Amino acid sequence: MLDVKTPAVALVAxxxxxxxxxxxxxxxxxxxxxxxxxPLPLLGNYLQLRxxxxxxxxxxxxxxxxxxxxxxxxxxxxxVLVGYKAVKEMPIDHxxxxxxxxxxxxxxxxxxxxxxxxxxxxxxxxxxxxxRMTLRDFGMGKxxxxxxxxxxxxxxxxxxxxxxxxxVDPGYTLICAxxxxxxxxxxxxxxxxxxxxxxxxxxxxxxAFSITSSPSGRLYDMFPSLMRILPRNxxxxxxxxxxxxxxxxxxxxxxxxxxxxxxxxxxxDCFLLRMKQENMKLPFDMKxxxxxxxxxFLGGAETTAVTIKFGFLVLIKYPEIQVFYEEIEQVxxxxxxxxxxxxxxxxxxxxxxxxxxxFSDVLPLGVARSxxxxxxxxxxxxxxxTDVLPVLTTVLNDPTQFETPHKFNVKHFLDxxxxxxxxxxxxxxxxxxxxxxxxxxxxxxLFIFFASVLQKCTLKPTVAPKDLDINPVETSFExxxxxxxxxxxxxx
Length: 492
Ligand code: HEM
Description:
about 500 residues, alpha+beta, CATH 1.10.630.10, 19 helices, globular, binds protoporphyrin IX containing FE
């Protein structure tokens, strides 16, 4: 007669064999991958990564495992690249194999997996080529890219000059200005700095960004299936961005109603025309249009505003670097607007802006890529579909490229004759064929914005520079600068 315990014993035995086999398969597969801490089932390396500062944790792991190692964000393996050599080598030697976008669950959910930044394969190729050409050729008859930036710089400088030397936090003015540049290029419009509805939308956008760096935002990154159903702070991320999404949708609808095929006005018009041409064949449909525009606001406006904000803090912390007066006087003068072509004649200003961008290190973790085929890298195997994370902060602070990586130092970009000097470690926009598509727009904007402000104002702190702490208040997906009020003294 069979014992009643027999089925239970058989089940346990079966489960044990199954688990042993699964473990064996996992260990076998993992043995060729870059080394790293052993992950727990489902939890991955959560125990190692849960502590506050993710970047510091990754740096510690890199000390133990070297510049190329594997960590598991939940059950998902990520190959982490640390330092200039590893980050540069991967997109150059294996460029075409890391063109996929790695999992960024909170953004994938936000964009419904549509749009340029999260697209993959042929859809990504088509969206990328279209967007690059449209942004590059944006002369399109009426406005060059330079003109909307200059217009915005004038509005921004007027706000600062009209503060009557009262200390102000420039944060909102900067996000208004940088989002207006994007609005102008992509949607042919700009918003008044006193438009309360728009200000609320921008304020919600900044709040949403800080959620991505919060503990619940990081948990979402590791355990999306669980976090999607848990009612925590991260659910606000989607609510806070609804206003911006609605504006983008409304703009797309209005553009469609007033579209003149003979005279495209902006990026949206060009996309709508391409949609007609392609008969709405993917990826040229409404969902991809809305997600692409939406991301350019999110990814572009906030990052640019934060860079300038860090820049202003650097200028008041180290007033000795505010010696642009002579260069501005010689090249631009004090009556006309700064132009992009002035940049090559202003090595000092150019070097300061590069160093500001390096020092502000806005996206320290970079943006995850994904292997589109098996990659053999430094003797390891990175299997197809594995995420690859280039930790950009370790490039921007790499001592092999920058003499004093943790100190603001204009000489990182100036040679001994005072000429502007390129530095290979300058990779805030990442590298390779999937680098930031907004790079040249951002670089134009940073130059014109900084030159316009410094042409018309001197910046002063409200406390002694030595007492100013300008270290980021949050650091994870994005480095968030502290709030310090600044006095803008008009130059007559
Ligand atoms: C300081 C400003 C900015 C920084 C530091 C920055 C940085 C980055 C980085 C690191 C990436 C990831 C690239 C990669 O996967 O290797 C990226 C992607 C991207 N950026 Fe930017 N960005 C900035 C401004 C902008 C602006 C103004 C726009 C819009 C016009 C923009 C649009 C995009 C898009 C669409 C992608 C995705 C590209 C793709 O997947 O093909 N960015 N950016």
